[in-house]
Design a protein that fits this description.
Layout: H1 2-48, H2 54-77, H3 82-105, H4 111-134, H5 140-149, H6 155-166, H7 173-180, H8 189-194
Helix pairs in contact: 1-2, 1-3, 1-4, 1-6, 1-7, 2-3, 3-4, 4-6
Length: 200
């Protein structure tokens, strides 16, 4: 009886750790991906000499928040709450449609800037797959397989690649000046200041 209780508690602790890990990974992906999408809108606005689409910006932020909230709820409820799981999947689909809306809205006449926007949008589009990869499936058997099988998503690699595309010169002075200020950071302003910019 005692061995069974210890095994049950160990399994519960392991599952809780898995839940915390995938939710944390999902949050870190969204912390980088949502601002990256908004940056693309801003680049297009600067290139076209127009104000940024604030409605789409608000929708991206709202959809990212919904995903984070539902992920936390799903992790607490586990696979015993298929309603939460389907809501989470619908929220990820809404976020994916935000990405498509950004790509449609971010059309500019300058070919170099359009190439930059396309490259950035393609990179950000990969975050949908990364988000789907870390969310456990709704049934118990698939959930345990998914938690073991998925490799960690590298936010530092994403940010480095994103920033290298972002700051590549386009020849458009307004765009090139704006993109220098839009770099993704993995650390807060305080950490960057304390480390004299060594940690970005």
């Amino acid at each position: 009886m005692r061995k069974t209780l210890v095994a049950s508690l160990s399994l519960a602790m392991f599952c809780a750790a898995c839940s915390a890990t995938w939710v944390s990974t999902l949050d870190s992906i969204l912390v980088a991906a949502a601002p990256a999408l908004i940056d693309i809108l801003q680049i297009a606005a600067v290139a076209n000499g127009q104000p940024m689409n604030t409605n789409l910006e608000a929708k991206i932020n709202a959809d990212a928040t919904v995903i984070k909230t539902l992920a936390a709820d799903f992790a607490k409820a586990s696979s015993l709450a298929p309603g939460v799981c389907s809501q989470l999947q619908a929220a990820v689909s809404a976020y994916q449609s935000d990405q498509q809306a950004v790509l449609q809205a971010a059309q500019v006449s300058d070919p170099n800037t359009q190439t930059k926007i396309t490259l950035l949008a393609n990179l950000v589009a990969g975050t949908v797959n990364a988000i789907r990869a870390v969310i456990p499936f709704c049934d118990d058997a698939a959930s345990s397989r998914n938690l073991k099988a998925q490799p960690p998503y590298s936010i530092s690699t994403f940010a480095a690649l994103y920033n290298s595309i972002l700051v590549a010169p386009t020849g458009n002075p307004a765009v090139d000046a704006a993109t220098q200020k839009l770099k993704l950071h993995q650390h807060s302003k305080l950490v960057r200041s304390v480390t004299f910019g060594r940690l970005q």
